[in-house]
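Subject: for your reference before the review

Hello V.,

The reviewers asked for a structural picture of the protein, and I figured it would be easier to keep everything in one thread rather than splitting it across files. Below is the amino acid sequence we used in the manuscript, unchanged from the supplementary table.
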Amino acid sequence: MTTLTLSELFEKSSSDTITHRGKIIRSVVRIPVTDNALVLINRLSVASPHPQAIKVAVNNGIMDVNGYRGPEIALWSHNSPEQVEIRVRGDNASLLEIWNAWSMGGVDTSWVGNAGIVSKANQEGEILQCSDGFDIPSFSDLIVQICVLTEAGLGK
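And here is what came back from the structure prediction:
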């Protein structure tokens, strides 16, 4: 019996969310946002020998982060700060999409092999436990916490 990888299970299900071995696993995590929302990303741990990244994209807007303005960013474990503040800009911005990536021989790689994210909500936001595409799914290759604050100061 051949064991399917997470990417094969995502493809077979035609969905970005699957249940595998009792865990709900996502290929992309979607978080609602509004114009001027402040997104706090805190890298909690990295347990992979490969450089890991969280990729963040906003629909219908841009993000301001450390002097960069654009619709998508990559926060790499080897060259970005452990804590990052992102300001969402755009009257029609409504959604952040977040996925994990890793470097494979210097090539930016996502959504292959056993890549996936287990998301757990807590009082401060969401903890994203990422498995890169190598080996068996571990969900400890990269762990980040994401908190979204709106203008009203409410946490998500």
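For the response letter, the relevant points are probably these. The domain at 24-149 is CATH 2.60.120 (Jelly Rolls). The chain has one helix and 14 strands.

Happy to draft the paragraph if you're swamped.

O.
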